[in-house]
Write a structure and sequence with these properties.
Helix content: 25-40%
Structural class: mainly alpha
Shape: globular
Radius of gyration: 16 Å
Distance between the termini: 36 Å
Number of strands: 0
Largest sheet: none
Strand content: under 5%
Length: 107
């Protein structure tokens, strides 16, 4: 596995409806193709994901070594709530990101 340190270009992904996890249509093949394309350039050590899905009034930085799935939606079929992706965290990247945000004058 390549552990390159070169940064990847930013990618904006609109996740759309959570139902794409159960009924992926064209989304499933796109995600698979994207994963292969990222791997082809050298698998990243970490991915910084930025989301507006938070009830916090200020930016919130998650910095755990291991994160658990948060289902931040309601009213969907039960099988959707059983899907999990307990992603590994990157505390060192979180600390670096926090420093960059502070240096930029952001909370």
């Amino acid at each position: 596995m390549d552990t390159t340190t070169a940064p990847l270009a930013p990618i904006f992904l609109s996740h759309g409806s959570p139902m794409t996890a159960l009924e992926p249509g064209e989304v499933g093949p796109f995600w698979q193709q994207l994963g292969r394309a990222v791997d082809a350039g050298g698998r990243p050590r970490a991915i910084l994901a930025i989301s507006a899905h938070s009830l916090a009034r200020e930016p919130l930085l998650m910095a755990a070594a291991q994160h658990t799935t948060v289902h931040d939606f309601g009213g969907f079929p039960e099988p959707l709530y059983r899907l999990r992706y307990d992603a590994p965290g990157a505390p060192a990247l979180a600390a670096q990101t926090a420093g960059l945000l502070r240096a930029a004058g952001l909370p």
